[in-house]
């Protein structure tokens, strides 16, 4: 059977694994939360060490969003345990260039918002910013779905598809 790539928002297949904290069944470990999987080619690699140190520092932000981070590497559990000590040690260093993980948190916020509301988030959207009303929302549904109202942006085509609303 051909293997197809996974995209953001796809359901990751279940698996069992020996981890640095014991054996887990991925779906049981996730329970009712979301999860984000950080995959790395090997333990003791420089960029991966900095990334996982940043992930560890952001665990409270992930948990606040109901998201459990997990890292996957093809090395042994013993190797992982040794690498974790390096990650912890590096995590005490000041890192100023790893802002892409903040972008991951922003994407999680967007995915969770758009999963439950009839909105999309525009380019450069930030938490609390204006959202785009989905084109599938009918005019008669607007007052119920968007009590703060909507604004239709005038465009040369005259089509009223660019509608914004305060974040629901």
TrEMBL record:
KW Lyase (keyword) present: no
This enzyme's EC code(s): 1.11.1.24
A GO term from the CC aspect: cytosol
Residue ranges crossing the lipid bilayer per the database entry: none
Family under the similarity heading: Belongs to the peroxiredoxin family. AhpC/Prx1 subfamily.
Annotated keywords: Antioxidant, Oxidoreductase, Peroxidase, Redox-active center
Catalytic activity: a hydroperoxide + [thioredoxin]-dithiol = an alcohol + [thioredoxin]-disulfide + H2O
Enzyme class, broadest EC rank: oxidoreductase
Species of provenance: Drosophila persimilis (Fruit fly)
Highest classification ranks of the organism: Eukaryota, Metazoa, Ecdysozoa, Arthropoda, Hexapoda
GO biological process: cell redox homeostasis; cellular response to stress; hydrogen peroxide catabolic process; response to oxidative stress
Thioredoxin domain mapped to chain residues: 6-155
Coiled-coil regions, chain positions: none
Protein's name according to its UniProt entry: thioredoxin-dependent peroxiredoxin
SUPFAM superfamilies assigned: Thioredoxin-like (SSF52833)
